[in-house]
Design a protein that fits this description.
With 71 residues, this protein is mainly α. It has one domain. 54% of the residues lie in helices and 8% in strands. Strands 1-2 form a two-stranded antiparallel sheet. The protein starts with 11 loop residues before the first strand and ends with a helix. Bound molecules: zinc ion. The site of zinc ion has 6 residues, from helix 2. This is ZAD domain-containing protein. It comes from Molorchus minor.
């Protein structure tokens, strides 16, 4: 997953394809995970994606809660 284009970083982790597709869909992001047989992401980018996912999840939860409370 190329997000930062860092080429000298050795701190990578492999991507769980199924989970990453779900997260990218929720974040409305498009990335070509088929770019290699074993795609990886650097840990900084992985943390950024997780933070964005957590933020959006919180927003969606709050929106759903507001809908339930106000209806
Ligand atoms: Zn990165």
């Amino acid at each position: 997953m190329q997000t930062c284009l860092q080429v000298h970083c050795n701190d990578f982790e492999t991507i769980d394809h199924t989970t990453t597709v779900v997260i990218l869909n929720i974040l409305n992001l498009t990335m070509d995970l088929a770019i290699s047989d074993e795609p990886v992401v650097c840990k900084n980018c992985s943390r950024s994606v997780k933070m964005a996912f957590d933020f959006k999840s919180t927003c969606l939860f709050t929106e759903e809660l507001r809908y339930v409370v106000c209806s």
